[in-house]
Structure to design on (374 residues):
């Protein structure tokens, strides 16, 4: 039997398989408000038969958006738009819902940027952007604005901002939350000595650099229903020889997250340093997931240019990770799960309107369902 298509439990949430749709920014919101694009985009992914769909990085406050076009969950208008989108998605296939996770985050010093297709450079307040915040007044690039260093009072307010977003997620009926602590955004900025140059209790040693991320996660976990899972996406290393944030430190962070009640860790890498040097290739981050899995008992998610069903099966089957998360592969082929199941001899649950699409060579792809045409 395929390891990739075995079920998995995260607290009381049941996943049908180990294929996860990774969060992918769409840069299609207006003032943080989801638009028709989101309903269509996430609607098709919700029909994919994946184990779980993680919605794109969603900012907990307006200045936490990566770009002015990023999704937010910081006011009633944001919440109402996501509620409408989720209502549409859930009505598509009421008999079988793909669990929906929402990734909460804050861009920190990497906020106020242009969309990728418009160059991605930071936008100044004079040009429609905003002032950014960070652990320290250190910009991501020397040419960018100095971010405002968050003092302890501001950190307390920021935690409350995250908790308000957690409450909104619960009202929306979101199945799970993932805290974004990767890719050089605010929580990762606390972890890396490249961006965290504080001299108080939140900077310096590894224990101090981990302090605010762990305080925040603990507060979020306590505010989230006990029955619902909460995970964290991390960058396993900075890919910069001048940084000590690497897999060794990340393993320690993972252990602390597990002790705080974390239900899975989603292992990515990079993003905090403009000098990072990454040799991209299929599965280039899997060894990080493998190293963390050897050190913790909570489920581990591997991600990073995983596109092939056999490769995904190998990762889970060889116990390098418990789940695999795919992003670009789903943009290219929203039916990736069906094709992988057919290749690996597994069955999936799918909307009955699509049952007759299965080719004969796929066997009983949708189980024992039979449908003919008149």
């Amino acid at each position: 039997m395929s390891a990739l298509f075995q079920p998995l439990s995260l607290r009381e949430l049941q996943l049908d398989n180990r294929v996860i749709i990774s969060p992918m920014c769409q840069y299609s919101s207006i003032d943080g408000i989801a638009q028709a694009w989101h309903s269509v985009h996430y609607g098709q992914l919700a029909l994919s038969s994946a184990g779980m769909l993680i919605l794109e990085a969603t900012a907990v406050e307006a200045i936490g958006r990566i770009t002015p076009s990023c999704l937010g969950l910081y006011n009633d208008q944001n919440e109402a738009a996501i509620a409408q989108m989720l209502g549409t998605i859930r009505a598509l296939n009421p008999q079988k819902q793909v669990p929906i996770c929402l990734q909460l985050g804050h861009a920190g010093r990497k906020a106020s940027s242009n969309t990728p297709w418009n160059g991605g450079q930071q936008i100044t307040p004079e040009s429609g952007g905003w002032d950014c915040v960070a652990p320290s007044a250190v910009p991501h690039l020397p040419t960018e604005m100095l971010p405002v260093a968050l003092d302890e009072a501001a950190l307390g307010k920021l935690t409350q901002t995250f908790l308000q977003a957690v409450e909104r997620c619960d009202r929306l009926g979101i199945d799970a939350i993932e805290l974004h602590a990767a890719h050089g955004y605010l929580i990762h900025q606390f972890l890396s000595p490249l961006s965290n140059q504080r001299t108080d209790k939140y900077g310096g040693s590894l224990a101090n650099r981990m302090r605010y991320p762990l305080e925040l996660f603990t507060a979020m976990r306590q505010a989230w229903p006990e029955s619902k899972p909460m995970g964290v996406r991390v960058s396993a290393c900075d890919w910069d020889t001048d940084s000590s944030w690497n897999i060794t430190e990340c393993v320690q962070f993972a252990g602390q997250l597990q002790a705080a009640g974390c239900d899975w860790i989603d292992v990515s890498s990079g993003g905090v340093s403009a000098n990072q040097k990454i040799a991209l290739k299929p599965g280039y981050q899997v060894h990080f997931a493998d190293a963390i899995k050897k050190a913790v008992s909570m489920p581990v998610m591997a991600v990073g240019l995983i596109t092939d069903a056999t490769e995904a099966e190998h990762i889970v089957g060889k116990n390098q990770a418990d789940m695999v998360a795919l992003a670009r592969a789903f943009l290219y082929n929203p039916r990736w799960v069906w094709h992988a199941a057919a290749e690996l001899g597994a069955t999936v649950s799918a909307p009955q309107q699509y049952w007759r699409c299965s080719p004969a060579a796929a066997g009983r792809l949708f189980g024992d369902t039979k449908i003919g045409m008149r």
